[in-house]
Amino acid sequence: MSKKVLTYITAIIIPVTLISGIIWAFNAADADGTIHLEGNETYAYLFLGLSITGLITGSIALKATNEKGDKISKKTILSGLALAAIFFLWRLSVAL
């Protein structure tokens, strides 16, 4: 895959996820401002999947900036996946 295509994919996924998540949060909140996940599990899983996809593509694109040429190597993909996994596990440990 070329760097340009991955950059475009990342530039689409991350803003769409952020903007749609904010819009959904404002619409799903009740009068107190709390969001109840009962009945909204599908949306929560959708945003979780999009966020993880954005994290993975973003970290691969970040690691690909150091690479020469237009193609992304397997080593860059694996190191990007490792970076995404470390960040995800760190955030998971902070949340627990």
How confident is the prediction overall: mean pLDDT?
Answer: 86
The rounded distance between the terminal residues' Cα atoms is 36 Å
Q: Which of globular, elongated, flat, extended, rod-shaped describes the shape?
A: elongated
Percent strand equals under 5%
Order of helices and strands: HHH
The domain count comes to 1
Structural class: mainly alpha
Number of strands: 0
Radius of gyration: 16 Å
**Residue share in helix:** over 70%
Features:
96 residues; mainly alpha; 0% strand
Q: Could you characterize what this model shows?
A:
The protein has 96 residues and is mainly alpha-helical. It has one domain (3-95). 75% of the residues lie in helices and 0% in strands. It is built from three helices and no strands. The chain has helices at 3-28, 41-64, 74-95. The longest helix has 26 residues, at 3-28.
